[in-house]
Amino acid sequence: MRDDLQRPATQLRDFSFLGTKAVLFEPDCPFDLAHQQRIWAVADAAATWPGVREAVPGMTNLTLLLDAVPEAPEALADALRRAWESGMAKTAEGRLIEVDIDYGGAGGPHLADVAQATGLSARAVVELHAAPVYTVYAVGSHAGYCYLGGLDPSLFVPRRKVPLLNLPGGSLSVAGAQTGVSASAGPSGWHTIGHADVSFFDPNRSPAALLRPGDRIRFRIGSLTI
Q1: How distant, in Å, are the alpha carbons of 144, 145, 192 from that of 185?
Q2: Is residue 151 a contact partner of residue 177, using CB atoms and an 8 Å limit?
């Protein structure tokens, strides 16, 4: 085993087990591109360590899938923290894809709710949402789903008080500082403001997920129903 996996950690802060052969590392950091680039870099480094089968970057966190139950979890935690504290970062400007969105109407039933919560008109919400080029910070939650950075702060709204039991695939939603398009149908506590006709995950495609961390998305206004 590498020396940097043998030195013990003084405590297991920001480190926890997911079952017996996976661990979660959660550094205390803001939700922004600079810190997400550090997550990407630590993931790349950890993927080369012996005993690590896969390193999966998440939103301001990192999951390691291991070959076996770690004999020295404190040492693994210490190695992750040292890698994080080194300040290493990965700049990845991947592909840019443009996605047409039908805002409002039946596919965006909560557009008016977001407008009311933000004090903006529905049209202003849509224009602000479609203005940025979003960066894919991580892929997760469900297969192919992209966590995006770049949402205008004017559109930050709390999650819904009553979650939806079944949100259709292709639904464009916002909550907190995040926005994204659901890759498949499922429950959601976010506000749906539009719909996209795009497949973010196809098990018959290689790779199955359309996007990966570092790729970018521009949402285009296909239609607007207020």
Answers
A1: 12, 11, 13
A2: yes
Structure pTM? 0.84
d(CA 23, CA 196): 34
Place of tokens 């991580």: 138
Q: Which residues, including other chains, have CB under 8 Å from residue 117's CB and lie 6 or more apart?
A: 157, 158
* Per-residue tokens: 180: 């994204």
Return d(Cα 218, Cα 179) in angstroms, integer.
12
Q: How far apart are CA 208 and CA 17, in angstroms?
A: 27
Q: List, for residues 38-65, the tens digit of each pLDDT value.
A: 999 999 999 999 999 999 999 999 999 9
Residue type, 30: P
Residue 122: other Cβ atoms inside 10 A = 20
